[in-house]
# Entry
Amino acid sequence: MNYRFSSMLMAGILTVGLAACGTKTETTETTTTTTETAATDNSAMMSDTSATMSGGTMVADGETFTVQPVGEQMEFAQKEFSAKAGTSITVKFENTATSQAMIHNWTLLEPTADVMKIGAAAATNATKGYMPDDKAGIIAYTEMSKPGESHEVKFTVPSTPGDYPYVCLYPGHYVLMKGTLHVTA
# Structure
């Protein structure tokens, strides 16, 4: 009798489990359809305003994109964004950190730039805001921002499509604090 009860119990559990799996499949399909619809709606607005897409937020000509650190870490909260080649954009760096040790900036580099060389040169140049004297490989940058400060830079997006790295040049931060600007045609 125990065997018969166990078999019936297992059959009941399997029936409930299979019914639940069927429900989950329908939910997943609905979510996928909703996501596809949202992506289609965003593609229509990309030319006029910022829209989220693969490659991060698309920043339109004349717009400002805000970058912040992740709390007290050496990490950008916004790890990537996109902009069309040749457009004029502004990047605003808001240092939302509270620890006085967390001084940061935002520096856009050429895809072929030697990040380690630039970072090492910046580390020895405290009197010039940790920017190297030789700006080869650097496209645009903000001043260093102490916690609670913001700085911005307006620049023309490079004319060659590709992935352009950005880093913080405060000593040692460039190793961890990085992201990518995807330049599109």
The radius of gyration is 24 Å.
